[in-house]
Structures are given as structure tokens and as C-alpha cells.
Amino acid sequence: GIICESGIYKNNGYLMVSCNGGLNQMRAAICDMVTVARYLNVTLIVPELDKTSFWADPSEFRDIFDVDYFIASLRDEVRILKELPPRLKKRVEQGYLRSMPPVSWSDISYYHNQILPMIKKYKVLHLNKTDARLANNGLPMEIQKLRCRVNFDALRFTPEIEELGRRVVQILRQNGPFVVLHLRYEMDMLAFSGCTHGCSNEEAEELTRMRYAYPWWKEKVIDSKAKRKDGLCPLTPEEIAMVLKALDIDRHYQIYIAAGEIYGGQRRMAALTSAYPNVVRKETLLPSGLRFFQNHSSQMAALDYMVSLESDVFIPTYDGNMAKVVEGHRRIV
């Protein structure tokens, strides 16, 4: 909220938010929700992260980000609390909570005209979807600056993740230049995009079944060939091997794979690993250091994010959330 000259926050109510999606989608959403809270003069409760998506990561905000730094670094802009004041918390626990998804790609006037009156009426409002709920363009420069400040300063990873990230970068640097390849060729990407080029018939059927198994994924019937023709599919591992050669990337450079498990495993990675023998991953560089991070995909993604920022070259194979956020962050640093 706005700080008055007396140093007291003007508070119009409380905003709770539940982020949805993977780490970088949630990261972008947190930037948006801090901005919304600031412009509505409401108190933001530390965002809740998605635990029910495909990744099923049980991590809380404090497991990934330095929550105290997040709150302190933004205190001149917006009031952020770890939880609701006791009286309101009790009301919420008793089931008195208005919950809703905001309209996608809205500008700030939507939040002023539609959301703020509800916060004033109910005292607490819960936004249960946060992906792309604030427009990217056509917003006042102050809003864009605050989004950047949240993303590139306030959202600092926990000291444990930062330390592990530094160790990975140090190991890579000792062995010369390294390229980070955000190889977005995991099962969820292929299932939800419908891109099955290079997959066997059995794999294509498995990916289709998975897409139908997730009720929140609206697009069910997908023509893989048409999608690929429109340029909407991620590059395959075989294609990225050709791209690296075309870019004249030295075959002895380390190629760090920033991704989860590649669909099709070694069979699909063969062209890349034969062209570039020094393909590495966080799991191979720090086999024992990652045991606490296993089954915590967002914490693993945070490590990949840190390594991506420090790399000599960053190459995404798909123009998704991580590609956009990392590219912006690399320009700042």
C-alpha cells in the first residue's frame, strides 16, 4: 500500500493469491500480483505456490525464495505479510473466503474497477489463478518498473539454492566455457502442446492419454503436424544439435541441459550427445548435493535458472516462460 507521510500504510484490505503452473510461470505471476497489490493499496499475503499441477511439487514459497528478503526489499512499495492477522485468519479457516480467478490479460483499470470494490467489501479476497492475469503492454512505466524490481531483485532464491547454484557454476567454469540449453522436451511439454514429431506411435498415444487425463488442460484435439508447421512446437533434441552446429558452437564446449527428464531418454539425445560429447546436467555435476531437492521440481528449476543466468550462452528451444524471464534477467545483469 501507499505509505503516508506519517509512515503508516493506507490499507484497503488483504489480497491472497494462489499461483499456478511451473516455477517461471509462478515467478512472472508473483511480479504481477505484487504490482496489483501496490496499485490497489492492499496488503499482500505471501503467495501460495502450485502443489497440484503436473509437477506435484510440495514446496512452499519459503522453500524456494528468501521470504524475509522479499518482504523487506519491497517494504517501501507494498505491505507484505506471511499470514493474515489472527481475526481474519480465523474467519478464512471457518470458510468465509471469497475466491475467484481474475480475467486474463487485464489492464490495471480492471483491478481498480472490479477487484478493489470486492476487497473493500469482503476485507480479504483470494485470487485462485494468476497466470497471465495482467497485460504485458500498454501499462504505465511505473508498473513495468515495479514488475522488473520484483523479478530481478526481490525474488532472490533461498541461501541453500543460491549456494548450490554457485557450486554448479564453479564446477562448469573450471572446465571452460559452457552453453545452457533449455531443452524443453519433457513429457508435460509434448503432451500439452500435442507436438509428437519424432515420437513412436506408442509414445504419441501415451502423450495424448496424458493430455486427456488433466481436466484443466482445455485443448484436447491437436493436429501435431499443423502445430509444427505453424512453428508452435519446441525444437527436438535432433534439431537443436543441427542448430548448435549451424551456430558454430565448439563441439568441446560443455552443454548444460536445463530441463527435467527428456522424453525418449538416450534414444532422443543420441544425435546431440554424439555431436557434443560434453553434455552435462546438474544431476551428474552434483550427484550427492541434490538429494534434498529430488521430487521438488521447482527447486530443481531454480537451480537451472541460476546456471542459465551465469552461462556464456543461453539457448532456449521453446519461447516459454523460462526463456522470456531468463532473457530479461540476463539483460539486467
Automatic annotation (TrEMBL):
This is O-fucosyltransferase family protein. It comes from Aegilops tauschii subsp. strangulata. The keyword Cell membrane does not apply. It is found in: Membrane. It comes from the Eukaryota. One of its GO terms (cellular component) is membrane. Belongs to the glycosyltransferase GT106 family. GO terms for biological process: fucose metabolic process. GO terms for molecular function: glycosyltransferase activity. The keyword Coiled coil does not apply. Pfam families: O-FucT (PF10250). Its main location: membrane. Pathway: Glycan metabolism. Transmembrane segments: none annotated.
